[in-house]
Amino acid sequence: MDDARTAIPRPGQWHAQAVTLACTLAIQAVATAATLAFPILSPAMPGVPPAAVGVFLAVVYFGAMIGSVVGSAIVTSLGPIRTSQAALLLQGVALGLLVIDSDALRLPAALLCGLGYGPITPASSQILARSTPPERMGIAFSLKQTGVPLGGLLAGAILPFIATFCSWRVGLAGLALVALIVSMFSTPLRVLDAGATGRLSLSSAWRRPIVEVLAHPQLRSMAIVSLLFSACQLSVSGYLMTFLHRDAGIGLAQAGMIYAVAQGAGIGGRLLWGHLADRIGSSRKVLMAVCVLLAMSAVATGSFSGQWGIVALCAVSAVLGATAIGWNGVFLGELARLAPKGSVASVTGGALFFTYFGVVAGPPAFGLFAQHAESFGAAFVALGIVPVVALAMLYFAGRGRRKK
């Protein structure tokens, strides 16, 4: 299949590009909302212990690891639009299983949800790589990736409201219906599936994207960097609220506001870094700057206390959110640039295998460190080391590229 160098539709067809981008954004937002629906609604579901949420998310992202590496083969066979539609339908089935409210069906639902979530990004990367001129890759991929925090934000705002005034079952069923509607409205874009082979073989397909990434030094370094970044992202999203309220002694309402600032800054950061990468013509340099700011803000966060003023708390949290949550679009744009011709979906799927491994492993490692140190503040300070390691990898990978 073609990649960014074929530029379909042409750069002048801005309307077609806008429609395509809006479609991928909607797909990403709904897919993210589906993965977060159970954690968000679990307090309203009878008999669901808190530990079940962690197990559910672990299974979701395990499924996403599998879905991301086989997703490229499915994209090659069906095309990126049909793959995205099938992924949304799979998540709709998972939400339907959760509506039944059976302990025996919860983990299969989590696995199906993850298997549906995994192919979304490889498919959308193929779509955007074919429809976006190279000089606008950064902002296009960053705009699409705002669907992740946007989906979480909308799910967090709407699903509890529905659960309060209707029921949690209505919330899950309603989201499944939205997934179906978005899938149907994506049908006119199947013109982008031109070139799909129609042949699907998964016997060795799961290995090919991983091998392809590991065999390319720059792609290999980007995959490991994404593992480190994703570990930081989920640690911040998973533990910042607990740290603010429990360790820093900040009131629950005020802590919630600071947490919201960090999440909102994640959306703004994705757009800012994408625009900056296009402006200076280097995604790698932007990611290096993000590493520096993330390290500094993580260390500063570790020193939070009730004596800090609200403005200072929000300012540091905004930088933390903009970096820890805002790196994804620039990363995916760089992958699209580095990918061999016709391999955007495959390379993206292989790299995301490592990204999701960071999602699975990062938060537990952070929690164990905090438990051992008896301080979430110390854990945030230690977290500042992770982007420094990523910075070193980006720097030496860049030097290696210049020597060739």
TrEMBL record:
<feature type="transmembrane region" description="Helical">
    <location>
        <begin position="310"/>
        <end position="332"/>
    </location>
</feature>
<keyword id="KW-0472">Membrane</keyword>
<dbReference type="InterPro" id="IPR011701">
    <property type="entry name" value="MFS"/>
</dbReference>
<feature type="transmembrane region" description="Helical">
    <location>
        <begin position="21"/>
        <end position="41"/>
    </location>
</feature>
<dbReference type="InterPro" id="IPR036259">
    <property type="entry name" value="MFS_trans_sf"/>
</dbReference>
<feature type="transmembrane region" description="Helical">
    <location>
        <begin position="344"/>
        <end position="370"/>
    </location>
</feature>
<feature type="transmembrane region" description="Helical">
    <location>
        <begin position="376"/>
        <end position="397"/>
    </location>
</feature>
<feature type="transmembrane region" description="Helical">
    <location>
        <begin position="224"/>
        <end position="244"/>
    </location>
</feature>
<feature type="transmembrane region" description="Helical">
    <location>
        <begin position="250"/>
        <end position="273"/>
    </location>
</feature>
<feature type="transmembrane region" description="Helical">
    <location>
        <begin position="171"/>
        <end position="192"/>
    </location>
</feature>
<feature type="transmembrane region" description="Helical">
    <location>
        <begin position="146"/>
        <end position="165"/>
    </location>
</feature>
<dbReference type="InterPro" id="IPR052952">
    <property type="entry name" value="MFS-Transporter"/>
</dbReference>
<feature type="transmembrane region" description="Helical">
    <location>
        <begin position="53"/>
        <end position="75"/>
    </location>
</feature>
<protein>
    <submittedName>
        <fullName>3-hydroxyphenylpropionic transporter MhpT</fullName>
    </submittedName>
</protein>
<feature type="transmembrane region" description="Helical">
    <location>
        <begin position="285"/>
        <end position="304"/>
    </location>
</feature>
<dbReference type="Pfam" id="PF07690">
    <property type="entry name" value="MFS_1"/>
</dbReference>
<keyword id="KW-1133">Transmembrane helix</keyword>
<dbReference type="InterPro" id="IPR020846">
    <property type="entry name" value="MFS_dom"/>
</dbReference>
<feature type="domain" description="Major facilitator superfamily (MFS) profile">
    <location>
        <begin position="1"/>
        <end position="402"/>
    </location>
</feature>
<keyword id="KW-0812">Transmembrane</keyword>
<dbReference type="GO" id="GO:0022857">
    <property type="term" value="F:transmembrane transporter activity"/>
</dbReference>
